[in-house]
Amino acid sequence: MTNEQILNEIREANLSYLLLAQNLIRNDRAEAIYRLGVSEEVAALIEGLTLAQCLKIAARNVLISRFRLEDDMVWSLLTDHGRDQTARQIHASILVASQALEVAA
Fold first, then answer.
1. CATH number of 1-66
2. pLDDT tens by residue, the chain, 105 residues
C-alpha cells in the first residue's frame, strides 16, 4: 500500500466517523456520548458541523478518532474466547463505560 493510498483510507475513515457521529448524536445524544466516548461539548461541536466542515476536517492526514480501549485488561477480556464469554463482555463493557464517565466529567 502506497503512502497516498494510506492517506486516502485515513480521509475516508475520518469522513465516515464524522458522519456516523453526527447521525448518532442527532438520534440519541446520551447514547452517542457514551458510544463515542466524547463530552457533551464535543458532541455539540460535531453535531453542528456542516458538510463542508466535515469534508475539511476529514481531509487531514491523521485519524480524528482513536481507540478508547487502551487498557490491557479490556483487550484481554474482549479477545479471550474461552468459557463464560458473556461475563467477560459485560465486565469489558463496565470498564469501558467507566472510562466514558471519566472523560465526560
1. 1.10.4000.10
2. 899 999 999 999 999 999 999 999 999 999 999 888 889 999 999 999 999 999 999 999 999 987 666 666 666 766 666 666 666 666 666 666 666 544 444
Ranges of each domain in the chain: 1-66, 67-105
**DSSP-derived secondary structure letter, 59:** T
Are residues 68 and 96 in contact, defined by beta-carbon separation less than 8 angstroms?
A: yes
Q: Please calculate the CA angle 8-79-75 and round it to the nearest 5 degrees.
A: 75
**What's the rounded Cα separation, in Å, for the pair 54 and 26?**
15
The CA-CA-CA angle for residues 64, 71, 87, to 5°, reads: 115
